[in-house]
Amino acid sequence: MDFVDELRLLKDQLAFEHKFSVPKETKNVVIAGMGGSGIVGKIFAELYSALPVYLVDDYSTPGFVNKNTMYIAISYSGNTEETVTSLAAAMKKGANTVAITSGGKLLDMPHQRVVIPKGLQPRSALGYMLTPLLKSFNAAPRHEFQEAYAALARIDANHSEEERIAREIHEGEKIPVIYGVPPYKAVAYRWKTQFNENSKILAYSGSFPEINHNDTMALKGTYRKGEFYFIALVDGRNMAVERRIGITEAITDIKFRRIKIEGQSALARVMAAVHIGDYITYHLARMRGKDPLDVSVIEELKERLQAARE
Amino acid sequence: MDFVDELRLLKDQLAFEHKFSVPKETKNVVIAGMGGSGIVGKIFAELYSALPVYLVDDYSTPGFVNKNTMYIAISYSGNTEETVTSLAAAMKKGANTVAITSGGKLLDMPHQRVVIPKGLQPRSALGYMLTPLLKSFNAAPRHEFQEAYAALARIDANHSEEERIAREIHEGEKIPVIYGVPPYKAVAYRWKTQFNENSKILAYSGSFPEINHNDTMALKGTYRKGEFYFIALVDGRNMAVERRIGITEAITDIKFRRIKIEGQSALARVMAAVHIGDYITYHLARMRGKDPLDVSVIEELKERLQAARE
Lengths: 310, 310
Fold this sequence. Notes:
Two copies of one chain form a homodimer. In chain A, 47% of the residues lie in helices and 15% in strands. Chain A contains twelve helices and nine strands. Chain A starts with a helix and ends with a helix. The first copy, chain A, is an alpha/beta fold. At the A-B interface, helix 3, helix 8, helix 9, helix 10 and helix 12 of A face helix 3, helix 8, helix 9, helix 10 and helix 12 of B.
């Protein structure tokens, strides 16, 4: 299966129906995960705030965790050492635990498990990992999943605009910096990681309105600004934030490449925004002669870490 | 008062004794703030996890907020529109509210207020804004504040190493990328914002171990990597994470400039780490002929936003 085949599977993952139960005593939620699995918690936390969602992206377990905490460990492989370590400590603290994984150590540890299909890159299994969260917490009605499916199918069928953006980045050897307007702050980070892993280039992300309190000062006076490619993810709905973009451009002489996300529901728009980034980074990998599936450097790092421990 | 005078005041801010009361019914904490005021919540959340701390860096107010939420709005000016908007909605939801501010609209809104001295840049008032959080939540014993004072005084007395690092960045016209090992993840972001506001250059931040799941792939194969200056904030205490740095260097051919943070308590080390970045960014501003106090672009943006609303 080549990478574009993996991308086409994203929409079908939205039909995944496995759920876990959330006790009504739950006072807070912790989601632990790294990289392509960790992004799932970040996206979920931007869509759902009926309970406090706390994210862990290292070996730690927060002090407040107790029996009223729903502790969700997400690792596609099931063997991510940070996430396994964090979950083990959460179990000792009496948390109500669940793992979302395709196998590995996480399968045997928690109270509940959602087992997802093997054989994909973790970052291509975003739908399998996100859908159980959304459905278990009733964070989106069924028709929004259908709308999201249709939005992804449209992008699968035509990604010529994504190819054009990839070409602009490629021809200038630009470093992308992606800024998300809410609810696309986590999506901006997803794009950054997809540029890293798929296209093998450095990339950075941030968000509006936060950028207006720091980066803006640099955008005016910095060296090297022509070497960056500034992207803003917008949808025309959050004008208190979006009007900041035009003003920022006017006073800093920077242009943001606006990506306008279409769709009725937040879920459909967020999934579409994810997928636009998937295709841009895929096309850029292709243009650069890089294999988007290749994560050999990360694999080598894991092996050396393992060797260092033994 | 010039900027280095402001920096020297940071240590004295640790003696600030104003507190607010935290009811024992408190189930969760929200801290809303932007930019130089927002970083305070980020640093606090990395030092304190006895309650779930949820950060807001836009106009929003999370859905879970209710009477058991301690809602803390931090804005040095007291007029930050995102924070004022977020606080107003939290009050409607019945949250227990407090403002940490030197004046403005925030003075009149919440149930409790901590009034801090006027006349500084918000980013130079970090101690005034952080200390009430730490003391009100009993997050650090008194002797740690004393140790932090001494650590800051040592840096005030000698910042030649900071000047050397600034010179390396300046001579290569490098873009700094700062990676924090826990508990320096928020500090890495603080450095990024100080490079932006003080030195007027682009800068980005991230953290170990998360970087090993995405950036690492790019560090090996990217274009332009010689244009960046990679920094790792470490303290020799978190070897599960720190051994990753050497391995990452070995397999990607990147060098991280390690900044070793000294100190017994986490508070003293975090404050020292903040201050090292303060001086690096100050020296870099000086070398570039930029005024570190100048935030005219951000001020202009606020005025244009105000005009657009009227």
